[in-house]
TrEMBL record, chain A:
<dbReference type="Pfam" id="PF06271">
    <property type="entry name" value="RDD"/>
</dbReference>
<keyword id="KW-0812">Transmembrane</keyword>
<dbReference type="InterPro" id="IPR010432">
    <property type="entry name" value="RDD"/>
</dbReference>
<keyword id="KW-0472">Membrane</keyword>
<protein>
    <submittedName>
        <fullName>RDD family protein</fullName>
    </submittedName>
</protein>
<feature type="domain" description="RDD">
    <location>
        <begin position="21"/>
        <end position="143"/>
    </location>
</feature>
<keyword id="KW-1133">Transmembrane helix</keyword>
<feature type="transmembrane region" description="Helical">
    <location>
        <begin position="27"/>
        <end position="51"/>
    </location>
</feature>
<feature type="transmembrane region" description="Helical">
    <location>
        <begin position="58"/>
        <end position="77"/>
    </location>
</feature>
From TrEMBL, chain B:
<keyword id="KW-1133">Transmembrane helix</keyword>
<keyword id="KW-0472">Membrane</keyword>
<feature type="transmembrane region" description="Helical">
    <location>
        <begin position="183"/>
        <end position="207"/>
    </location>
</feature>
<dbReference type="InterPro" id="IPR002798">
    <property type="entry name" value="SpoIIM-like"/>
</dbReference>
<protein>
    <submittedName>
        <fullName>Stage II sporulation protein M</fullName>
    </submittedName>
</protein>
<keyword id="KW-0812">Transmembrane</keyword>
<feature type="transmembrane region" description="Helical">
    <location>
        <begin position="300"/>
        <end position="321"/>
    </location>
</feature>
<dbReference type="Pfam" id="PF01944">
    <property type="entry name" value="SpoIIM"/>
</dbReference>
<feature type="transmembrane region" description="Helical">
    <location>
        <begin position="110"/>
        <end position="131"/>
    </location>
</feature>
Length: 228, 328
């Protein structure tokens, strides 16, 4: 299976869909967090350098806390995402889809040391590339997933004046295909649009009204709930 | 029922639900200034209704935009309902007053194994160095040995520190926390390598202690050394042993997951062990306090030994006696 979508059934017997995030977005999120952490430590260092040797003890304490508990803090108290993850629209959840809690968050961040080995997140990267849900060792042990949590936006495709009602009920796969087509249409040449429309003759051709791609866009408007 | 009718029937309900979610997302101060769209205790019921409507909408193949909207609402409601971290304070209190000791007793086999892996090599090394002092160089080079002897020499102002880096107690406290807790965390996490890294950490620490202790005794500094370490050794070594036990258990779960899948078994084990790891981190903080502020004091040897003995007994008694009454 090429699709990475993970379906989770909740106790209410509905299906939630989680889309695990891969190596690159997570790597980028880590880089952003790294910069933030470094900035925090430098700021702390400048401030504490006034306090002499006791300051260096405090700095080590701060370094220890930030090193181990920076992600835990954000994952448990700030909605499952460190600032870096938030920037990329990622969030950490349990593998049953519920928001991550204390023990899982601690486990996945303590196990980070195992992912760091032998150097530069070697084990973590290999594990993420091999796992079909892109989990690093810490994620496997903690039973967590890093997923995309973007607001579902039905992108407004350029409104096509016609709203056409289909002659037969459309199943969801067809609806989805129509919407995807309408979203991508502006980026396609008219010739390509017609070529794609020709793949669906039973929808794109009708006894009357617009034909081909124009008809598909009209149907997509109907599916998206536009009123004529 | 047509989609339009369905939407007309429930739209108000969905709008209120969405308004409530937006309200909860506000910072606390702004929330207090407004009225909640509905009281929190209605959330489960309203969420279940929404779930039912989502299922209906999917089953009846309603429009995609409607299904996606309901899915988004249900997802947010789900996160609210299942994301609540209730009663953290009480949970911590119950864990401290007995749960931790129960966890440790439940893992006594692993604790024993970890104990042997730490103290076995230590005793062997002490014996070896006693019989043949040059064997010490297998573990430590002469420079390091000289450094240790200087730390515990009788003219050192503070025990356990080299005179020339006149560090303050507070500086050392930060260092001990940073160093020891990190080591313990790594000792636990290293267990994922089928326990190899954990065993390595325990054995190498044992060998190290053995050499240092025997060489200092041979140099006639045994009294200084023991008066320094005895205060914090109960908490510190106890915590190292527990982190070793947790690491060994994790490694064993990887090797022999039993009837569960390997990933699931590891997740179960980690969930059971994480409390113990937090507990041992707290033990190390206590150890660091003692090590930084009490251990370096130059007091009469009997006082240090007496107080040290009590400080070793405290964690021991806790693990043996605490949390028996509730039973489990």
């Amino acid at each position: 299976m090429l699709d990475t979508l993970r379906h989770v059934t909740t106790p209410e017997l509905i299906e939630l869909q989680l889309r695990p995030a891969g190596l690159l977005p997570r790597g980028l999120a880590w880089c952003i967090d790294f910069v933030i952490r470094a900035a925090l430590l430098i700021a702390l260092g400048t401030f504490l350098s006034n306090l002499g040797r006791a300051g260096s003890g405090l700095w080590l304490l701060g370094y220890f806390l930030i090193d181990w508990f920076y992600p835990v803090f954000f994952e448990v108290w700030r909605g499952g995402a460190t600032p870096g993850k938030k920037t990329l629209g990622l969030i950490v959840v349990h593998d049953n889809g519920t928001p991550v809690g204390w023990s899982a968050s601690l486990a996945r961040n303590l196990l980070r040391t195992a992912d760091l080995l032998p150097f530069a997140y070697g084990c973590g990267i290999v594990s993420m590339l091999l796992h079909r849900e892109f989990r690093r060792i810490g994620d496997i042990v903690a039973g967590t997933l890093v997923v995309y949590r973007e607001k579902p936006v039905l992108r407004a495709h350029p409104a096509h004046e016609a709203v056409l009602t289909p002659h037969m009920p459309l199943d969801r796969a067809t609806q989805r295909a129509l919407l995807a087509f309408a979203e991508r249409a502006p980026a396609l040449t008219p010739a390509r649009q017609e070529e794609l429309a020709a793949l669906l003759p039973h929808l794109a051709r009708a006894p009357s009204g617009p034909q081909g791609a124009a008809r598909l866009l009209g149907l997509a408007n109907h599916v998206a709930g536009r009123q004529a | 029922m047509k989609q339009e009718g369905f939407e007309r029937l429930h739209a108000a309900e969905w709008d209120v639900f969405e308004a409530w979610l937006d309200y909860r997302a506000l910072p606390k101060r702004q929330r207090d200034a407004r009225h909640a769209p509905f009281p929190s205790q209605e959330l489960p019921q309203r969420y279940r209704h929404l779930c039912q409507q989502l299922a209906l909408a999917r089953d009846r193949e309603y429009g995609l935009s409607l299904v996606e909207r309901l899915h988004a609402l249900a997802q947010r409601g789900h996160d609210h309902l299942y994301g609540l971290q209730g009663g953290v304070g009480r949970k911590v209190w119950r864990y401290v007053t007995g749960g931790f000791a129960r966890d440790v007793r439940a893992h006594r086999g692993w604790v024993l194994a970890s104990f042997l892996l730490l103290f076995g090599p230590q005793l062997l090394m002490m014996l070896a160095v006693h019989l043949k002092p040059d064997l010490a160089h297998l573990v430590l080079d002469p420079q390091q040995l000289a450094h240790y002897e200087q730390m515990y020499s009788s003219d050192a102002q503070h025990l356990g520190r080299v005179a020339r880096d006149a560090s303050t107690d507070f500086n050392m406290f930060g260092f001990y926390i940073f160093n020891n807790v990190s080591i313990a965390f790594r000792c636990f996490a290293g267990g994922i390598s089928a326990g190899l890294l954990t065993v390595f950490a325990l054995v190498s620490n044992g060998l190290h202690f053995g050499v240092v202790e025997m060489r200092l005794i041979q140099a006639g500094l045994g009294e200084n050394f023991h008066s320094f370490v005895i205060g914090h050794s109960g908490f510190e070594l106890g915590a190292i042993i527990l982190s070793g036990a947790a690491g060994l258990r994790l490694g064993f779960t990887l090797l022999a997951p039993g009837q569960l899948g390997r990933g699931v078994a590891l997740a179960h084990a980690a969930h059971e062990l994480i409390g113990m790891v937090c507990g041992l981190a707290v033990m190390l903080v206590i150890a660091a306090l003692i090590e930084a502020f009490w251990s370096p004091l130059r007091l009469a040897f009997p006082i240090k030994i007496g107080v040290g003995g009590v400080l070793i007994l405290v964690p021991l008694m806790y693990f043996l006696l605490a949390g028996r009454r509730h039973g489990s």
